[in-house]
Design brief:
oxidoreductase; globular; binds NADPH dihydro-nicotinamide-adenine-dinucleotide phosphate; 278 residues; binds dtdp-4-keto-L-rhamnose; Rossmann fold; binds magnesium ion; single chain; two-stranded parallel sheet
Length: 278
């Protein structure tokens, strides 16, 4: 059972599950299963009778969340907790997704699952609270923290850059926020591997390997797309946004690698994704 099936990760989970050929898939987008509606949940469980549930549904608009915290909370905390509890009651496995933005920004080495959390934005705090509520309602849950997710479709930095790069002659992009771009297809495959393994419940990081600033990421996108737009590296203060983002959120992925294999480099994954964009 896949919730949030219309999002970028949701669509890739469907693809990964189909490729395995052994799974019967019940995928629900927001109109079929709204996490804030208990009656939708009951109907979906009755129909799918799943062995395992993947929750790709979330409120992901980082800046907008600053002005509508209740909406973000409703999905990322209450909705996620409700789904986790429903799975636990029925003995259904549960896989949830969280974000690099939950980590404390004081580290200068790849972040481990046991490191301190903080959350400098409404989005990050609702995701963190969601994690805690999930673990309280469902101690068997797997929670995968990931970062900078993109796909050839959906709302993401890659698609924003492709659009702006074609419209503008030059773009200023922050170069002092560092993380790891992650292809939604690689994340989906890792999530299925984790759920099929003997991995204990708890928190797992997953991201493509290698490190990039948003500026590096934009640079690689323009290079691969052959877009001729001048890129200027800037500091965070020069690009004010409603939500404060972490300056360093590279994830240590050793823990999940034991069950899902080592992730490939973000540049290799980006190349595969961009071949799908015509
Ligand atoms: N995108 C990223 O860079 C990152 C994402 N993550 C996490 O990964 C997960 C997947 O994210 P991603 O696929 O990128 O996000 P998307 O925004 O692409 O997809 C989220 C989906 O959830 C749906 N949704 C929103 N509210 C509800 C609701 N009440 N009930 C059911 N569905 C709902 C959205 O529908 P609609 O479009 O109609 O609102 C959308 O289809 C999320 O948990 C996210 O927090 C973690 C790190 C990075
Ligand atoms: C469009 C644009 C953005 N930026 C900066 C702003 C920001 O610091 C950075 C990325 O902007 P975005 O809004 O695309 O990224 P953002 O929405 O913050 O992406 C995050 O989404 C959530 C869901 C997550 O969980 C995170 O892992 C992360 O992927 O790029 C520029 O510097 N110049 C620009 O022209
Ligand atoms: Mg955004």
């Amino acid at each position: 059972m896949i919730c949030g099936a219309g999002g970028q990760l949701g669509q890739k989970l469907i693809g990964a599950a189909r490729a395995s050929k052994e799974l019967r898939i019940f995928a629900y987008n927001r109109s079929a299963l709204d996490l804030t509606k208990p009656e939708d949940l009951r109907a979906a469980f009755a129909e799918a009778k799943p062995d395992i549930c993947f929750n790709a549904a979330a409120y992901t608009a980082v800046d907008r969340a600053e002005s509508e915290p209740d909406k973000a909370r409703e999905v990322n905390v209450e909705g996620a907790a409700r789904l986790a509890a429903a799975c636990h009651q029925r003995g259904v496995g549960f896989v949830h997704f969280s974000t690099d933005y939950v980590y404390d920004d004081g580290y200068n080495r790849p972040l481990r699952e046991s490191d301190r959390t903080l959350g400098t934005s409404v989005y990050a705090r609702t995701k963190l609270e969601g994690e805690n509520e999930i673990m309280r309602h469902n101690p068997d849950a797997w929670i995968i923290r990931t970062s900078w997710v993109y796909a050839e479709y959906g709302h993401n930095f890659l698609r924003t850059m492709m659009r702006l790069g074609q419209e503008r002659e030059s773009l200023s992009i922050v170069a002092d926020q560092v993380g790891s771009p992650t292809y939604a297809a690689d994340l989906a495959a890792a999530a299925l591997s984790l759920a099929a393994s003997e991995a204990p419940s708890g928190i797992y990081n997953f991201a493509n390997s290698g490190v990039a600033s948003w500026y590096d990421f934009a640079h690689a996108i323009f290079e691969k797309a052959g877009i001729d737009c001048h890129l200027k590296p800037i500091r965070t203060e020069q690009y004010p946004t409603p939500a404060k983002r972490p300056s360093y959120s590279v994830l240590d992925t050793q823990k999940i690698a034991a069950y899902a294999g080592p992730p490939r480099h973000w540049r290799e994954a980006l190349e595969e994704c961009m071949k799908k964009i015509t």
